[in-house]
Amino acid sequence: MSNLCGHRGFAGPSACILKRGHGGAHSYGNWNDALIREEREELESLRQQLASCQAALADTEALEIGTGERLAKVEQQLAAAIAACKLKDESIEAAHNGLRWWMDAFPLHVTEADNEEMLKLVKALTIHPDDSALKAWLEMSNTADCRSQSSLQGVVK
Length: 157
Ligand SMILES: [Zn+2]
Fold this sequence. Notes:
Elements: E1 14-16, E2 28-30, H1 31-105, H2 112-126, H3 132-140, H4 150-155
Helix pairs in contact: 1-2
The protein binds zinc ion.
């Protein structure tokens, strides 16, 4: 519906082309031209709204892509850190087993320093990074796209 006054003072194509509810005298002009101009202005306004909606949508998509990339990077760092921890566990275990073997084979040569070293190794073997939250998160995201998590699932058992 037009927002123009449309008051017809004369017979013919002319009518008041001022806004509906305007004050003062009517201003008669070409009614069809006025309607077309009004339509064009409305179209232009809609076009601008659409453009700003598209811009906002593009921003949102860019933000989501950025978040996904950051998340993938954090996952990789986390996987690498956990893998490094597992590797250290293996080294400590090897050292522990070696010292254990030596202490059992040559009990008379075992010194206080050997016993202290053994205690340190045993203590080190009991320390594990808390990856329970990570495991829960991996299970939770199993239903979602888990291509990026598959590398982690190999590490976290
Ligand atoms: Zn009028």
